[in-house]
Design goal:
Largest sheet: 7 strands, mixed
CATH topology of one domain: Neutral Protease, domain 2
Bound molecules: ligand BES, zinc ion
CATH architecture of one domain: Orthogonal Bundle
Number of helices: 20
Number of strands: 21
Shape: globular
Amino acid sequence: MKYISILFVSLTTSLLVVSCNNSKNEEVKNKESREYVNDVHTYAKPNTAVVSHLNWDATVDFDNKLIQATAQWDIESSDNADEIIFDTYGLDIQSVQADGKDTEYHLGAFKEELGRPLKISITPETKQVSIRYSTTDSARALQWLDPEQTAGKELPFLFTQSQAILARSWIPTQDSPGIRFTYDAKVKVPSNMLALMSAKNPSQKNVNGEYTFKMPQPIPSYLLALTAGDIAYKAVSDRTGVYAEPSLLDTSVYEFQDLENMVQAAEGLYGPYAWGQYDIIVLPPSFPFGGMENPRLTFATPTILAGDRSLVSLVAHELAHSWSGNLVTNATWDDFWLNEGFTVYFEHRIMEEVYGHDYSEMLASLTRDGLQRDAEEMMKEIPQDTRLKLNLEGRNPDDGVTSIPYDKGYFFLRLIEEEVGRERFDEFLKNYFEENKFKAMTTEGFVDYLMANLLTEEQASKLQIKEWIYEPGIPDNLPEVASDRFTAVDKALKRIMEEKIYPPQGVAEAWTTHEWLHFIHQLPKDISKEKLKELDQAYHFTQTGNSEIAAAWFQPTIRNNYEAVYPRVEEFLIHVGRRKFLTPTYEALMESGKEEMARAIYSKARPNYHAVSRETMDKLLDYKKADEQENESA
Ligand code: BES
Ligand code: ZN
């Protein structure tokens, strides 16, 4: 089996060995291929000493906005190991023990993005190391919310975001996606709060605010997660449910009524759900992502609460990660497309099962248009990042989070599906997940598996497999998507623009969010303010409560100086911290001569953003520089 050293025979690894059956790759397995691959984003040397289990004991201190904790790690080491190395970022290390006795340790030099290595002296016999520490203000994963930033406005709130390499800012860990461990945790929060992790979770508050957690399946550190606040739970089915602040719970349960149907659709496609329970928590609006696939408990933005269940493909996406990503995990962040491309593919398949083909083809069409727009832009500035296999050495892995791993990845898999037929492709994917579960996968490992199990050399060269993976740009065999429902929208839009004839009553009213998104995307680049006003009067885009439609509408309106939208833009940017919406909106402001407005809004909004969004917007708006200039002129 790949990447797990034969040196480390423990309970976990032997279970893993058992779960690995005889794939056709068996004969190529030699000692080398059993080792962890090199990951440039960790200091850990797992081939020397690696973690297998975490026992985490923590107190969440809202007054001082820090976590005081002990991380006790079970470890496995090679015959001549004399140290084990952990990743840390801004942690205050207080004491370190090896098998219960104080031991020497050393914090190495700080590197941007990576933080500092924590090197702990051990012997090959050492079974356990224990690190007492607290987090600091530089904990990039944590967002501490004041009560005003929550729906309830009474209690503060905390959530983490560990992907890609931010887990190290709240737990000293071997922070590489190829290194897995099980965990137990004991977490103390204020007595009126509920705490949840990416683990077996409580469904009710208790009086003392002490909660215990268990994650019996091995996970990589980027899937470590914690949240605490005024949170309540409602089940949707025996094994699915929703957590949210009490005032949002019913709305959320309504929106996610199809949870169980989605899990069943997913299982029908690619095999049993491996994690027991599947819940979602709806977080406050500053959550920087749409969703995060924390095992057993997806973290989600409230901006998907559209009221009409039209944005639940995000749930299908995070659920799909329970296979692609959480079971079969990208070995390094350069292989990120193995997580996201597979997940977008799987997401579309779940959507097709639950809502039908013409619905999922609308989604695929939006995906294709978005990919082409983004790839065209990226080819001008950063063509190397349009390859599926990335090279993120010396960079923040966050730089790799673009439409490429997601949507180029999706269309690459769809291309293969179209070549071999759906039946064979599904069989292939099901086996891929089964044979590689709880393991890390490299791009090369996947290509080997693909060639051993699905494609002939002729097919691979016809499909341009190598070009898709290793070359910049989008190959000329990008699969086509035909959506009749979008063709109807195109016709209606044409009549509106050319003849000022609006579709008859009832037609546009029946459109879903996706038809509206397509409609807005298709507006001419330089559309007049008058026309925008006319459309706004007809369809009330500026006032929409649908976050996707609002964010799409900000593009043509900001870029063509339709001033009526500005107050809504400001309100949106201050309220919402989801990076996918912030980036294009601030970009539109900056690129249309409204830098001053962008910065004025940002200075009000910035305190509300999670570090992940702040870091991106600081760059986009040249925030530090603007700050210094202000200081200089003062
Ligand atoms: N795992 C990602 C989020 C992520 C990626 C966080 C990389 C940090 C680094 C999650 O599954 C995701 O892709 N979320 C998307 C939603 C989706 C429907 C494309 C998002 O947040 O918009
Ligand atoms: Zn994803």
